[in-house]
Amino acid sequence: MEKFGFVIHPITFSDISRKFGPLANFLPEKLVLSTMKKIGPQEVSHITGIKSATGKEAEGWFTACTLTTEQMVKLPEKFVVKKIIDAVNLAAQQGAKIVGLGAYTAVVGDAGITIAKNVDVPVTTGNTYTVATALLGLRWAADKLGTDLSQCRVGVMGAYGSIGKACSKVLAGSVGELALIGRKQHELEQLKEAISSKGQVSLHTDAHEVLPTLDALVTVTSAVDSVIEPEDLKTGAIVCDVARPRDVSKRVAEVRDDVLVFEGGAVLVPGDVDFNFNFGFPPKTSYACMAETMILALEGRYENYSLGRDLEVAKVEEMIKLAEKHGFELAGLRSFERAVKEEEINQLKERIAKKRTSA
Ligand SMILES: NC(=O)c1ccc[n+]([C@@H]2O[C@H](COP(=O)([O-])OP(=O)(O)OC[C@H]3O[C@@H](n4cnc5c(N)ncnc54)[C@H](OP(=O)(O)O)[C@@H]3O)[C@@H](O)[C@H]2O)c1
Fold this sequence. Notes:
- It contains 14 helices and 17 strands.
- It is of the alpha/beta class.
- Helix 6 (about 115) links the parallel strand 4 (about 100) and strand 5 (about 125).
- It has helices spanning about 15-20, 25, 30-40, 70-75, 75-95, 115, 125-145, 160-170, 185-195, 205-210, 250-255, 290-300, 315-325, 340-359, and strands at about 1-10, 40-50, 55-65, 100, 125, 155, 175-180, 200-205, 215-220, 240, 260-265, 265-270, 270-275, 285, 330, 335, 340.
- The radius of gyration is 20 Å and the shape is globular.
- It has two domains: about 1-130 and about 265-330, no CATH class; about 130-265 and about 335-359, NAD(P)-binding Rossmann-like Domain (Rossmann fold, 3-Layer(aba) Sandwich).
- The termini are far apart.
- It binds NADP nicotinamide-adenine-dinucleotide phosphate.
- NADP nicotinamide-adenine-dinucleotide phosphate (NAP) binds near residues 163, 182, 227 and 265.
């Protein structure tokens, strides 16, 4: 039996009650947050029933770092990193031979490098398979809507972050124009230098100016609040929102019925997996970053894998192959916490066509 751990944390304050019960909702927020800051890592659940297509089996443990996203952004980095290290060590004590870093625990500081140096167990952010599933999802959605990405203006927002940079490198040369979006011009220029030989690349520090011109977008910033509003999107735009917390405002679901926004990275896990914890996905479905940790365990690849902000593009291909070998697959599109049905995509296609002809 192969063994892994995965560190999770409350994305928002409301997530705290999922682990600690509804009492958290009745206590003053300040008191709950200051208690969470003081307590050590928590055992959350035992993950059972993962069975690879090769017949190999794995089990794992969710452990919690008890800080919300906002706390991770605001508290001193050293303190936050130490809390994450403690959570990784707890997973190792439980028997994990590799530990994945979930959501913001993979974003803090140098994206896992310092954490990996300070623990005795291999670590991964799971970002390589997240890149793979985001791009596979984007292509799948484009095919369904009849959008030819090789003729389109495709953006990556958060372009020089860990996931964004690898997405940009893979997309370069295979789309009509690649629009790199970020807040720091020099970081965008450095990225362009690395990829512009592969095709047309443009740089944008004003997101609200460029977003309405895009046919497709992967958005993967580490912003704490949403950064894309309904008025930012072009009719027919396909948006893969990888970020957690999400980048696309919930208002988009309410007022735009002519765009396709979906969450990157929902994966069907092989076997009869039970996470024994509700993180908001349907049964047997995980985030890609969790899946990467499981896949590495099933392979017996107990080594640091996706760390830092310069992921290896070759590993994206490797992860796709390993996922196939073990029977992991894309779970279909999810949009604002629910599955998108095939007939909804067909209806959307009709609405887009109508809107385009009446424009
Ligand atoms: N769905 C999944 O399975 C999955 C898996 C892993 C990670 N994630 C999520 O993916 C996101 C990114 O992760 P990462 O590891 O790539 O993080 P990262 O390396 O820190 O990159 C994030 C990028 O976002 C930019 N950014 C931050 N705030 C911004 C804002 N308000 N507006 C525009 N850009 C902003 C940052 O650049 P500047 O601050 O320099 O502008 C940075 O380059 C996080 O939300 C994480 O939780 C999701």
